[in-house]
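Suppose you are handed a protein chain with no further information: no name, no annotation, nothing but its sequence. What can you learn? This example shows the usual starting point.
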Amino acid sequence: MIDLHTHTRESDGTLTPQELVSAAAQMELEALAITDHDTFAGYDQGVACARDLGLDLVCGIELSTSFRGRSVHVLGYFLKDGPSEDLRRWLVSLQDSRHQRNRRLVDKLRSKGIEITLEEVYQRGSKLPGRPHLAALMIEKGYVTSFRQAFDEYLGESSVCYTPREDPAFREGVQRIIAGSGLPSLPHPGRISSDRRIIEEYVDEMRLAGLRGIEAYHSDHSPSDTCFYESIAQRLRLLVTGGSDFHGATKPHVQLGTGIKGALDVPRSVLDDLRRG
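A reasonable first move is to predict its three-dimensional structure. Written in structure tokens, the prediction is:
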């Protein structure tokens, strides 16, 4: 079993890279990809630990992009050569955008009577904190009782305090990954739409923009969902990727190597096919 979608505290997870690698080794995962948001810092820090433990560690990243006016993520996998220096330099601008968004979001929350500070958010340990860290702080202070309530009422796209980021266009994100020696894949495709016809239409458009893979295995997916996304991959000649989207304590319902709906069982052949592709 493998897990090709995980996050560390270098973005919006809660485990250090070394803790995540150690947990994967203890579970006897055959391979792990660290796919932090907008940074390779988690992967860079986990390499030595993975080598010592004999774990196949894959270099990855997850970018936020804009597609048809909405936020859509893109996974990048660097399976042969490491990411280019040009790509690493470009990521600095995305990290700056994430910090600026956090500042605006905290200001909006304070205007609604949510007394939290930016310093408190960053003190939670993440180098690039996101909305899950804000939600955890709101729960801790008693303003909400759950992550769902925090997102429904304050942090989600339809909430009173939602603050968009200035994300690059989907095509640019995909092309940056390709130019940086990576393979771009669409994560959690079911979040695009609840209508499967629309999902397939959009994925086909994304393929024309350079998309090379689709995440058929994910913690959101039922076996039926996985079969559907595998069929899209076959029809559109895309590669299949898969992972839990593990974050640690900010998403306690998602465990490493498993999902909300049970074991993911991402086979090793998925990674082998990606490397051949």
